[in-house]
Amino acid sequence: MKIKMLKNVMACLVAAAMLVSFAACGEKPKDNESLVSSDIVSTEASSEAKEESSSKAETSSKAETSSNNEISSKADEVETSSESTSTSSRTSVVRPNNNTNNTSSESDVDNSKYRLDYTFRNSKYKDEYYNRGGIYNTLYKLHKGEEVTLAYIGGSITQMKGWRNFTTEYFENNYSGKINEIEIAVAGTNADLGVCRIDDEVLAYDPDLVFVEYASNGGDAKHVEGIVLKIWENDPTTDICFIYTSATNYYATHYAQGKLPPFPEMSEKIADYYDIPSVFFGKQAFDMYEAGELVLDGAAEPRKILYTSDKTHPTEAGHLLGAGAVARSVVNMEKNFDKDSYSIKNHAVKSATYDKSPWVNASQSTDWSKMKFSGEWVTCPLDANGIYTDFGYAVTSNAIKKTIKELKGTRTPGSSVTVKFRGTEIGFVELGSSFSGQLKVTVDGVDKGVLEIYDKVYDKELRVEYFFIDSLPYGEHTVTFTLDSAMPDKSALQSKYPNDKNFEKTEFYLNRILVNGELLDAH
Fold it and tell me: What global pTM score does this model have?
């Protein structure tokens, strides 16, 4: 058993003179290589995120909030600002960010007039998309003028206004039927949390097409395959498309060397196995960079597109490039689609899974009645005015309010929550900040040490965080989390904000339980 702490962390081309006419993309050969190990995925992705995280932390330290009991969460608003991402050993769901401008700042380039012109501004960009089994069930319904629901699950690049909105616009402007959009992306989250959330937050709405985007944040094969299998268990006619966003350091470390970053490499094997289409956002940007038409990151240059200002989150122009890649993939699929003879088909689920243990039983629960609480706890629901009753801290972030509907909190050390489950992984989602403490953990009566829910780098603003205890042997387990009276080391941030008395507190605000298995009654 190990305690795995996970804390969080796209449409046409922009300048017509830079782009050439549409060219079809070929199919990708099947890859028979074995899956890259999860250790390689997590280690390499983690090292790529550290430089970015360090830069974010330094910037974050410059802005102190005004009141001890009003912890600002406006920095978590990914609708108007970007979020840093990480797949380190501890990954927060909503992380403070300090870039308040998602729009591109290119000089002398007008994005707006190209926004809806997705189709014919490609494409010398090799391997931008792989159609495989396509999204033909969705196209059939679109051609019949039927109502279609698009779902988007992923991290901050999908949560923020960008490729998602532009992609929905493309479908709205090119087909006659009503287009619905479901967006449940949460900044900084990995596919492990996604597979726990997808039943309640996506599949309950019976989507026709699900876009899955976790390339910047990561996850293992068992999580990605779990998402696929859950979607097709709910409805085998639902189409799926993998989306791969690209941090700019991927250019030098992977794409320029003809390699894929770890997460896309792993996911492409699953895409091959299940015949799922995929779209790469970075291929075109990197080609334009090599041609001197684009700045990868940093400051804008005259008459060049700026792809991202923080190495990860695209500017509006970068989002447009990504959405253009999605649209071009759809256009290519249309070439092979006979709407008059086509009929709805089930996607084929293999008799054997790709990974030996995909998370097909992952779920989430806020059924407090199954959990055993001892000590002093207060329930903090989100009321009609967007206020968490009895929470005591100001929450200005719509992203948090969308994700967190109720909190179960304690400010009293010694208070505990006990959960019982049958399976292999158990975890929780919580809302944390400078007031966060640490938890004593016992598993089946055995002391497993202390779990810090306070983050030494990012716990100044309010953030949604999640944690897992994983790799337990399959069976029934009882896990207790107790708020510790001892204080985690908060000195690094506390020294920068000496007037914030919340650093002197130790509190725990639980939102939901995550389980790969079945939640049982702990009483």
Answer: 0.80
